[in-house]
Design a protein that fits this description.
The protein is an alpha+beta fold. It has nine helices and 14 strands.
Length: 326
């Protein structure tokens, strides 16, 4: 059921484009009203003349909000990641970084995997991956978040429609959508096994959400199919889908998807026999460092929202292929 008092028209831009505590151009939560607002910030932040992506690929990313490529991971990489995940599952037990399905207790996500695994840390620090983020965001970057999302055959749960940036802004204090996600396929992502769905072009708008962030909300929202706060109104999702359509992003194991932090996206459950697992790493611009949360009394734990570190220390960690390790 759609929430009450949702806006079904795209509102005029809010005044000003400054980022900070005085002028928040991405106001969300705290009221019973949700809306769709024009995004005042760019998708590709610089001229994009230096980096792995061609002008055509950059233009496609700017228009659709995502870029897909194959061959980012080798079969050896994938096998090594799967072995690591099996070890992590046994080692971590009931660690808070493991999120389980409410239905049967199976693992839904493991967070902070770049700190937990040298194999994952090395993949996340590869220039062919990091340089795309640097090119699009026009800045040095750091890892805001990393995770593995699991969708085992017959049991993988869905993820409801949302914009990552809305959560990162409201609950982590990310000022602007100068961040992107990298999704590396550890299994084939098929149209029938819960592949990611993106509304191309939705990143050009900010979809605010109604409601107020409860204390410690992350414990509920991460395990919920449709969290009660931080998800857009059904009427808004319908409006965006009717305007832009829905792309189902498929690809073989080893493929990579880069997508803007403000894209409206979701994924269905997996009732096929074919598992779907992806490694996600979120790169944030150093100039977009976290501040106090914009719509939450306190920030989420650091395993969900890493803070930018000292530049010299970060550079050493990039070089050691262990970004963000402690």
């Amino acid at each position: 059921m759609a929430r009450e008092a949702s806006s079904q028209t795209i509102s005029p831009a809010r005044s000003g484009t400054a980022v900070g505590r005085d002028v928040d151009v991405y106001r969300t939560r705290g009221t019973g009203v949700s809306s769709i607002e024009p995004r005042p910030h760019p998708t590709v932040w610089g001229d994009g003349d230096r980096g792995p992506l061609s002008p055509g690929a950059l233009s496609g990313y700017e228009g659709r909000g995502y870029h897909l490529a194959e061959g980012a991971l080798t079969s050896e990489d994938i096998d090594a990641c799967r072995d690591e995940l099996a070890h992590l599952t046994l080692r971590l037990g009931d660690d808070n970084r493991i999120i389980r399905e409410r239905s049967d207790g199976s693992i839904r996500s493991i967070f902070d995997v770049h700190k937990l695994s040298d194999v994952v840390a090395e993949i996340c620090s590869r220039p062919q991956i990091v340089d795309v983020a640097r090119q699009i965001l026009d800045d040095e970057v750091y890892i805001h978040q990393s995770r593995i999302n699991f969708k085992p055959g017959f049991a993988g749960g869905p993820f409801y429609w949302h914009s990552d940036f809305e959560t990162w802004h409201a609950e982590d204090g990310m000022p602007a959508p100068r961040a992107l996600s990298v999704s590396l396929a550890l299994t084939p992502n098929r149209s029938d096994n819960g592949a990611l769905m993106i509304v191309p072009g939705s990143h050009k708008h900010f979809m605010s959400c109604a409601g107020k962030t409860p204390d410690g909300y992350h414990a509920e929202s991460l395990a919920s199919y449709r969290p009660p706060v931080g998800t857009p109104d059904e009427a808004q999702v319908t409006q965006m889908a009717e305007k832009y359509g829905i792309d189902t992003v498929t690809g073989p194991a080893g493929s990579v998807l880069y997508f803007d932090s403000n894209c409206l996206h979701a994924s269905a459950g997996n009732i096929t026999p074919f598992p779907r697992s992806n490694l996600f790493v979120v790169f944030n611009s150093r100039a977009n460092a976290l501040v106090r949360p914009f719509a939450s009394a306190s920030p989420r734990p650091q395993y969900l929202a890493n803070e930018v570190m000292d530049p010299q220390r970060q550079q050493v960690r990039w070089q050691n292929a262990s970004v963000g390790r402690s």
